[in-house]
Specification:
Blueprint lengths: L6 H9 L3 H5 L6 E3 L2 E4 L11 E4 L4 E4 L5 E2 L1 H9 L3 H12 L16 H23 L4 H9 L4 H7 L2 E3 L5 H8 L4 H7 L2 E3 L5 E3 L4 E7 L5 E8 L8 E3 L15 H11 L1 E5 L2 H9 L5 E3 L7 H10 L2 E4 L5 H16 L3 E4 L8 H8 L1 H9 L3 E2 H10 L7 H15 L5 H15 L3 H14 L27 H15 L1 H10 L7 H15 L6 H5 L5 H13 L7 H33 L3 H20 L1
Parallel strand pairs: 12-13, 12-14, 14-15
Antiparallel strand pairs: 1-2, 2-3, 3-4, 4-5, 6-9, 7-8, 9-10, 10-11, 15-16
Helix pairs in contact: 3-4, 5-6, 11-14, 13-16, 14-15, 16-17, 17-19, 20-21, 20-22, 20-24, 20-25, 21-22, 25-26
Length: 603
C-alpha cells in the first residue's frame, strides 16, 4: 500500500509525528540514555523491554520482537491498514492529504463501518435535538438541573432520544441503513410484534467512544421511574465491549499523561461533573466492576490510579476489589474518601470543583491506610480475639510492601493504637515476610533505571556475519559509507538477507534520499526483512565508526566469500575423484578442506 502513496506525503506526515509522542499516547515512556523505555503494549510484562529510539524514529520490543516505525506501530496497535495509519497521523498533525491520489482501504468490515457510521449519525442527531429541538427539552432541563453547562454538553456530545418508538428507525433507514444491521448493532431493538423500536427512547444519551474518539455505543439514562432500568447500555457486540472500554478515555488520556495519574470513577455523570470542574484525568467503568483489561489499559499510561467511587457500602466493596486488581498488575493505588451518602457528582454539586480537588482527590488515602479502614469494618476491636486477628491481617498485608518507610509508618500506627511494642510487631512482620517471599509488591519490577532483559539469549554468529551486520548498520545511518561499500563490495554479502537489504539500500540512496531508517522500512514489504533492518539499526552507532574498522569488515567479508568459493570448488573436485574411483585424490582434497576450515577458525 505504501508504494501507491507519494513518498513526499509519507515523509511529511512522518516528520510531523514524532514517534515518541505518538507511542506516548498509548504507553508510559521514560527516558534512559538516548532511548525511551516502557511496558510493551503487545504482550504482558512487568519489566520494561519496549524501546523507542527518537533519533532513528523506530521502536523495538526486546521481549516479543515486534518493531517498526510510527506507521507500523499504529497498524499493529489499532489494526489499521497503512492508509488508515497515514490518515490518522495526518489528522493528528494537521497535514492535508490529497484524497484523489490515495486509494482508501479499511481494516474494518463493511458492516462494521456501517455500524460506526450509524452511531456517528445518531450522536449528531441526539445532540442536535437536546440543544435545539422541542423533542429534547426534557433532557436539556434535567441536565441543567444537574449543573451541566452547554459547553460541557458540546464536549461530551450528550444528547436525547425522543420518546417515540420508531423515530430512530425511520431516521436511519432513510439514511440507507438496513434493519438487520441496526438490530445486530444494538442501536435498535425488536419486540414480539416484529416491530423495530429505539431501545434508548426517552433517555438522555451519553455517547461511548473508543480510544480514537469514534462512538461505538450509547449509555442511556431514563428520566422517569417507569421506563425500565435507570441506566441502559448498548448491547455487547463487535464494537461495544464494556469490559474493554473506559468512558471518557479518549478525552482524558492526554490529561492522564500530564498529571501522571488517572482518577477512576463509576458512572457518566461523575466523570462529566469532574471534567467540567477542571479535574480532567477522569475515566469510568460505566457502572460495572473494573476488569483486568481496563486495569492494564490504565497501567500502560500511568503508575498511579486514584479510585473515586461512591461512599456507600457497595462503593467501598468495589474500591477494595478494584484496588486488589490494580495492584496485581503493578499500579500504585490511592483511594479517595467520600461520605456514605455522597458520590463524586453530588459532592461537586454541593461543594464545588476546587473542594473536590483539594479535599477528596489530593487527600486520598494510600492503599494500606484504606486497607486498614476496610478491615476494621469486619472486626469488633473491643473483642480481644478479633483485635489480634485484625492486627495479624494488617501485618500480613504490610509484609507484602517493600517500602521500609511505609512499613515503619504503619508499624508505628499499630504501636500507638494497640500499645504493642515496635519490636514485637516487627518480629511478627518478619515472620510473615519469610513465609510469603513471592507476594512482594511488584512495583519494583517496573523500574525504568534497569536495563531491559531480553527473553531470548543473544545468538553467537561467525565473525564475518557480525562484520556484515555492523557494516550494514553503518550503511543505514550514513550514505557515504553505503557508497563506499557499494563500490568495494556491491551485493557480495555472504548472508542472503544482507544482500537483499544492501540492494534495497543502494537504490534508496541512488534516488537522492538522505539516511532515514523509518522511511527506508516503507520500501520493504517483507516483515522478516523489516525486523532485520530494525535489529541492524539498533545494533551500533555510526558516530563510533572509523575508516579502519570499515576496511577491516570489508576484508573479512571478502575473505569469507573467497574461502566459500574455494571450499565449493574443493568439494566439487572431491566428488569427481570419488566418482572416478580415485581414493588418494579424494583424501588429499579432504585434507585441504580440513586445513581451509582450520584457517577460517583461526581467523
Amino acid at each position: 500500500m505504501a508504494n501507491q502513496i507519494p513518498e513526499p506525503i509519507i515523509e511529511e506526515v512522518k516528520k510531523s509525528n514524532d514517534i515518541v509522542d505518538v507511542i506516548g499516547e498509548y504507553i508510559q515512556l521514560k527516558k534512559q540514555g538516548k532511548n525511551y523505555f516502557g511496558l510493551c503494549p503487545f504482550h504482558g510484562e512487568n519489566t520494561p523491554s519496549f524501546s523507542v529510539t527518537q533519533e532513528k524514529q523506530i521502536f523495538r520490543c526486546f521481549g516479543c520482537g515486534k518493531g517498526g516505525n510510527v506507521f507500523s506501530f499504529l497498524m499493529e496497535m489499532e489494526n489499521f491498514t497503512f492508509y488508515e495509519a497515514l490518515k490518522h497521523l495526518a489528522n493528528r498533525s494537521g497535514v492535508e492529504l490529497p484524497e484523489t491520489s490515495i486509494k482508501k482501504e479499511s481494516s474494518l468490515s463493511e458492516e462494521t463501518e456501517q455500524m460506526l457510521s450509524a452511531y456517528g449519525w445518531l450522536t449528531k442527531l441526539y445532540h442536535h435535538l437536546i440543544k435545539y429541538q422541542k423533542d429534547g427539552k426534557d433532557g436539556l432541563e434535567y441536565l441543567k438541573s444537574r449543573g451541566i453547562t452547554k459547553e460541557t454538553l458540546e464536549e461530551f456530545q450528550v444528547g436525547y432520544a425522543p420518546n417515540k418508538r420508531d423515530f430512530t428507525a425511520k431516521f436511519l433507514m432513510q439514511k440507507g441503513y438496513s434493519k438487520p444491521m441496526l438490530l445486530k448493532s444494538g442501536i435498535l431493538a425488536g419486540n414480539d410484534n416484529n416491530e423495530v423500536i429505539d431501545r434508548f427512547r426517552g433517555r438522555i444519551i451519553f455517547p461511548i467512544r473508543n480510544a480514537l474518539g469514534r462512538t461505538v455505543g450509547f449509555g442511556g439514562r431514563s428520566l422517569t421511574d417507569d421506563s425500565g432500568p435507570k441506566y441502559l447500555n448498548s448491547s455487547e457486540g463487535e464494537l461495544f465491549q464494556k469490559s474493554k472500554l473506559l468512558y471518557n478515555f479518549d478525552l482524558a488520556k492526554r490529561h492522564i499523561r500530564k498529571e501522571n495519574e488517572a482518577i477512576l470513577m463509576e458512572g457518566y455523570m461523575d466523570v462529566i461533573s469532574a471534567y467540567q470542574a477542571g479535574v480532567k484525568n477522569v475515566v469510568a467503568t460505566m457502572g460495572t466492576a473494573l476488569t483486568e483489561t481496563q486495569a492494564k489499559l490504565l497501567n500502560r499510561y500511568v503508575d498511579t490510579v486514584i479510585i473515586c467511587y461512591d461512599g456507600d457500602s457497595a462503593g467501598i466493596e468495589a474500591r477494595y476489589k478494584a484496588s486488589l486488581l490494580l495492584r496485581s498488575i503493578g499500579c500504585d493505588v490511592r483511594i479517595a474518601n467520600l461520605d456514605a451518602k455522597e458520590d463524586p457528582d453530588s459532592y461537586i454539586q454541593q461543594h464545588g470543583g476546587e473542594a473536590f480537588r483539594e479535599r477528596v482527590i489530593r487527600t486520598s488515602d494510600s492503599y494500606m491506610s484504606f486497607f486498614m479502614r476496610y478491615q476494621r469494618r469486619h472486626f469488633n476491636l473491643q473483642v480481644e480475639s478479633e483485635r489480634i486477628e485484625y492486627i495479624e491481617r494488617v501485618l500480613k498485608e504490610l509484609s507484602m510492601i517493600e517500602s521500609a518507610l511505609e512499613r515503619e509508618y504503619y508499624i508505628q500506627e499499630l504501636h500507638k493504637e494497640f500499645d504493642l511494642s515496635v519490636e514485637t510487631l516487627m518480629n511478627q512482620l518478619t515472620q510473615y515476610d519469610k513465609r510469603v517471599p513471592a507476594a512482594k509488591d511488584n512495583q519494583g519490577n517496573k523500574s525504568y533505571t534497569n536495563q531491559y532483559v531480553s527473553v531470548t539469549k543473544r545468538k553467537l554468529y561467525p565473525a564475518y556475519v557480525n562484520a556484515e551486520k555492523r557494516i550494514l548498520s553503518y550503511m543505514l545511518q550514513d550514505a557515504y559509507i553505503a557508497e563506499k561499500v557499494q563500490y568495494d563490495l556491491g551485493a557480495g554479502f555472504n548472508v542472503n538477507d544482507h544482500k537483499i537489504v544492501a540492494t534495497h539500500l543502494y537504490a534508496f540512496y541512488e534516488e537522492g534520499n538522505a539516511p532515514d531508517i523509518s522511511l527506508f522500512m516503507e520500501r520493504l514489504s517483507d516483515e522478516h526483512l523489516k525486523n532485520q533492518v530494525i535489529e541492524l539499526a539498533l545494533s551500533s552507532d555510526v558516530e563510533n565508526s572509523t575508516e579502519e574498522e570499515i576496511d577491516d569488515y570489508l576484508r573479512m567479508i571478502h575473505r569469507e566469500a573467497n574461502q566459500s568459493q574455494t571450499k565449493k570448488s574443493l568439494k566439487e573436485q572431491q566428488k569427481k575423484a570419488e566418482r572416478e574411483n580415485d581414493p588418494l585424490e579424494a583424501a588429499r582434497l579432504a585434507m585441504e578442506l580440513i586445513q581451509l576450515q582450520k584457517q577460517k577458525n583461526e581467523n
